[in-house]
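Weekly puzzle thread! Below is a chain. First person to post its structure in C-alpha cell form gets bragging rights.
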Amino acid sequence: MSQRSHYKLIGNRNFMDNAKRTALACMLGLTSLSALAQDSATAGKIQDALELEYRTESELTRDRNRNPAGALAFMGLRDDMSVFEFGPGGGWYTKILAPVLKEKGQLAIGYKKEWLDEISELEEAPELSEVRRVALDMDWNSELYAFEFNDIEFKSKDLDLFLNIREYHNLHGEERSEFNDAVYAALKPGGTYVVIDHTRRHMQEDNFENRRREDPVTVLVEIQESGFELVKSSDMFYRLDDSLEYEVGRRSVSGNTDRFFFVFKKPE
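Winning reply:
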C-alpha cells in the first residue's frame, strides 16, 4: 500500500470514528434535552434564582467558572427534592438552592454552629426562610488542615441529594470513611451523593501546595467502599491550563482550578 493510500485510509477511518462520535453525541444531547424538558419548572426556578437581587457582584462573577445551571442539571436536581448541603461556606450555592426548593422541597445546610452563624444574615431573605440549619459537632484542626468530628450525624433521613462541594479535601484519616458512611445512612435508597473538588495529581504525596486538592481516584475508591455506586462523572470543570502544581488560592490558578465532578447513587 502506498503511503498516500495509507494516509487516505487513516483519514477515512478517522472520519468514520468522528461521525460515530457525533451521532452518539447527538443522541445523548437529545436525551439530555428531553430530560430537561420534562423538568422545565426546575430549570426555570434555577434561572430565576440566578437573577435574584441578593446575589452579590462577586457571586455573579463566579457563575461563569462554576456553571451553576449546568452543574445542577447534571446532578439531577428537582424542585421537590430533600437536599443537604454540607459546608455552605458563604452561601453561594445556598442562595440558588433555597428558592428552587422552597415550595416543594427542603434544603438543609450543615456546618459547625459558629460557621453557620457567620451567614445567619442570609436567613433574613424571604427566599431562605425555609432553610433548615444543622449544627454539626465538628471543628478545625489547624495542624492537619482538616475537619475534626466528635460525631458525624447529619440529623437527616431519606434525603434525595447530598452535596459535598469543594470540601472532601478537608476530610482526614478514618473520618473520611465515617463521613461517607454517614452520608449513606442519611440518603434514601436511590439517593444521590455529589462530590466536586479541586484535582490533585494521582498518588502525589501531601505537600503545602496540594493541601486543598484531592486525588479523584482515591475519592472513587473510598466512596464506593461505603456502598455507593458511581453513576456518572462530568468534565465540565476540566481546566487545561491548571497544571495541578499550585495551591488553589494562588493568583495564577485561583478561580480556574481543575475540578472533578462525581455523581454517586445509594443502591435501591
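Puzzle host: Confirmed. Bonus trivia for everyone else. The chain has two domains: 1-38, 40-265.
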